[in-house]
Amino acid sequence: MPPSHFVATEEFVANIRAWALDLGFQQLGISDTDLTSAEGHLQRWLADGMHGEMHYMAAHGLKRSRPADLQPGTLSIISARMDYLPEHRSSMAERLNDPATAFVSRYALGRDYHKLLRSRLQKLADKIAAEIGPFGYRVFVDSAPVLEKAIAEKAGLGWIGKHSNLINRRAGSWFFLGEIYTDLALPADTPVASHCGTCRACLDICPTQAIVAPYRVDARRCVSYLTIELHGSIPEELRPLLGNRIYGCDDCQLICPWNRYATLSGEADFQPRHRLDRATLIELFGWSETEFLQRTEGSAIRRIGHARWLRNIAVALGNARADQAIRAALAGRLDHDSELVREHVVWALRRQTTEAET
């Protein structure tokens, strides 16, 4: 319960914003809890089965779109963003266009962002409590059924683009989001207008054409879903389209004209680890399970496990230019314990052999 004397003055809200900046966030906004429009969009998306095997998207009923059902007493939501871009666009494009180099979505190059943002948001909540006394709240960083992009949009942090990511007019889309659900009655910020206009660059660039219509992404075709969320075999017809993308995909962000305003992150934890921004496919394919676990400790990548890591890289090796070293690396995994790995290795070897003979 909020303190009985609490009144959300302009000075208090200004202090919250200043504290957020001091803690490393680039922007903070406040919204109410009415997500009616987003709820309708979510329900239609689920009804069409576009969430694929992400059953958790439908597992919590309407708690995802009704904040007070998830956290009783919630009156306002504090939403904050933190930039994570680790390198310039030209460098990313260079890696993506080199079929021998593994491309990892740039959000996953460093340490897992969940703990960092959660810690900073907790510190922000502590500062608020120190100012007004104990109050009710709960911190979220992609850790519960929360419509974080819809909330951030209502809080004025940007607009949801045609690729379904949040875009900020002055910062692009290379940032993480986190929320504090609170029982404090805070003045809501004004949402900003969409500035996508007639642009359809993200729809056209998507390697698997997963953005089936503006603001509508079929996850079952999305490279991020296929390389991270999907547990089984990657559909054969989609494998050639993955190119050298082994964990996630950044194409729609790389092409977005608003990302010319994005700035590099100063957070040390978001900087690349273990040369993941430039490692070759063969190099990463050679990691043993022990090496994989050691080198992905504290990383978002670890969640897919070693077998799916090898599955993804096998596909990328199959898409690379014919090379004897690649065929040798693939042959070395033909007796892997995982049937999933073996299947994708056989497919990749067939691709490599066919290309070598042409």
Automatic annotation (TrEMBL):
Its cofactor is cob(II)alamin; [4Fe-4S] cluster. GO terms for biological process: tRNA queuosine(34) biosynthetic process. It catalyses: epoxyqueuosine(34) in tRNA + AH2 = queuosine(34) in tRNA + A + H2O. Residues 187-216 form the 4Fe-4S ferredoxin-type domain. One of its GO terms (molecular function) is 4 iron, 4 sulfur cluster binding. [4Fe-4S] cluster 2 binds at C206, C222, C249, C252. GO terms for cellular component: cytoplasm. It is found in: Cytoplasm. [4Fe-4S] cluster 1 binds at C196, C199, C202, C256. Pfam families: Fer4_16, QueG_DUF1730. Keywords: 4Fe-4S, Cobalamin, Cobalt, Cytoplasm, Iron, Iron-sulfur, Metal-binding, Oxidoreductase, Queuosine biosynthesis, tRNA processing. Its EC number is 1.17.99.6. InterPro entries: 4Fe4S_Fe-S-bd, 4Fe4S_Fe_S_CS, QueG, QueG_DUF1730. Binds 2 [4Fe-4S] clusters per monomer. The keyword Coiled coil does not apply. It is an enzyme of class 1 (oxidoreductase). The active site is at D142 (proton donor). Catalyzes the conversion of epoxyqueuosine (oQ) to queuosine (Q), which is a hypermodified base found in the wobble positions of tRNA(Asp), tRNA(Asn), tRNA(His) and tRNA(Tyr). Monomer. Belongs to the QueG family. This is Epoxyqueuosine reductase. It comes from Methylomonas koyamae. The gene is queG.
